[in-house]
Every structure is written in structure tokens, then in C-alpha cells.
Amino acid sequence: MSLRHAVLGLIVQAPGCSGYDLLKIFEISLAHVWQATQSQIYGELGKLAADGLIEVASEGPRGRKEYAPTEAGRDELRRWLTGTPPRRVTRDEALLRVFFLGSIPHDQARDYLRREADDAAAGYDELIDLEHSLDWTQDTMAEFGRIALEFGQRYMAMRRDWAQWALTQLEARFRETT
Predict the structure, then answer these.
(1) Rg (CA), the chain
(2) Looking at the predicted structure, is the pLDDT value of residue 28 above 90?
(3) Which fold would CATH assign to domain 3-83?
(4) Are 67 and 18 in contact (CB under 8 A)?
(5) How far apart are CA 177 and CA 17, in angstroms?
(6) Confidence label for 133 from pLDDT (cuts 50, 70 and 90)
(7) What does the alpha-carbon distance between residue 120 and residue 86 come to, in Å, rounded to a whole number?
(8) Do the bridges between strand 17-18 and strand 54-59 make them parallel or antiparallel, or are there none, so unpaired?
(9) CA–CA distance, 24 with 31 (Å, rounded to integer)
(10) Per-residue pLDDT for 1 more than 70?
(11) Which of 166, 169, 134 is nearest to 149 (CA)?
(12) Residues 6 or more apart whose Cβ sits within 8 Å of residue 67
């Protein structure tokens, strides 16, 4: 997913939002899928406007701008959603490190896997808390956001369970070799 399409999609689903509003929506909805900083989001707003995909719908005090999609922006979002296959690039530094755990002492490898299990459990709990903190019935974005959140919850649960399993494998191997 590109940040361009993430910002464009938010504007299509929540027209009239300012950059600040979009940043807050991004933080509670897309941040678990795609990381972006405030400066990246604001930079993308400028690019989308320059490309004619969004427009400033109104300006308020202190330079606050509210954005709306143009027809070209709606068309671009549709094209991206339905006309291009998603890139499924997987780069997972944590898993790459697991591949090389045999290079360090057993206790350090064990501690690493425990941290992975704990981090995944904390991530899962955070997503459960998020689920309970929002009204998922208010609009289409919330409805599909809930579906995406479910993926995040299942993914974090899988990572937690996998790390716990990996830890048992490590311990069993250690017992066999000592």
C-alpha cells in the first residue's frame, strides 16, 4: 500500500478533514497497517493536491485546510483498489533475527523469543482495547476498519502463539544437547 493511496482513501471516506484530522484518523485506523509521520502525511496532501486528486474545500483560522477528493481522485482510488494487484512485500526484521538465533548463547536466544511473545501479546491487547474504545457502527470506514482490525488481532495472536511455540522448541533442543 502506498501512503498516497492511504491518504487519498481517507479523504474519500472522510471528506472535509484537515491534515490534523487525517493524522488522528490515521493513528487510530491505519497505523497498525502502514506507518507514517505527520510530515509524510502533510507532504502527501501537497502532492495529491498538485496532481489534482484532492482540493482544498475550505480554509479556516491559522491556515487550517479541509480537503475533499476530486472526481479524478475518486477515479484513482477506484483504479488502485480494483485495477492493480497489491504488492505483498514481506520484510520482518524480527523474524530475520530468529533465523540467526543459533549464533548467540541459549539464554540470549530464549530471552529474545520471550520478548517477541510479550511484544505480540501487548500488541494484541492494544488492538483489543482499540476495538472496545470505538463505535464501529457509525459509517462505512468504521465497518471496514473493524474488518482490518480483526486481521491485526489475529496476526498479533498468531505471532504471540508462534513465539511461545518457538520458545518450547528452543528449550526442547537445549535439553537434548545438554
Answers:
(1) 21
(2) no
(3) Arc Repressor Mutant, subunit A (1.10.10)
(4) yes
(5) 60
(6) confident
(7) 25
(8) unpaired
(9) 10
(10) no
(11) 134
(12) 11, 15, 16, 17, 18, 19, 22, 45, 49, 54, 55, 56, 57
Which residue shows C-alpha cell 473493524? 146
Which of 83, 16, 77, 8 is closest to 49 using CA atoms? 8
Query: Residue 55: helix, strand or coil by DSSP?
Result: strand
Distance, in Å, from the CA atom of 87 to the CA atom of 90, rounded to the nearest integer, reads: 9
- Strands (E) in the chain, as ranges, are 17-18, 54-59, 65-69
* Distance separating alpha carbons of residues 132 and 153, to the nearest angstrom: 13
User: How deeply is 130 buried, as exposed, middle or buried, from its count of CB atoms within 10 A (0-12, 13-18, 19+)?
Assistant: middle
- The residues pairing with 65 across neighbouring beta strands, listed in sequence order, are 59
Instruction: Identify the helix (H) or strand (E) that includes residue 82.
Output: helix 71-83
User: Taking every pair of C-alpha atoms in the chain, what is the biggest distance, in angstroms?
Assistant: 71
Whether 170 contacts 164, CB under 8 Å: no
Q: What does pTM read for this prediction?
A: 0.73
In this structure, the number of other CB atoms found within 10 A of the CB of residue 145 comes to: 19
pLDDT at 41: 92
**How would you label 48-84 residue by residue, b for 16+ Cβ within 10 Å and e otherwise?**
bbeeebbeeeeeeeeeebbbbbbeebeebbeebeeee
Query: Rounded mean pLDDT of the chain?
Result: 90
Greater confidence, 135 or 3?
A: 3
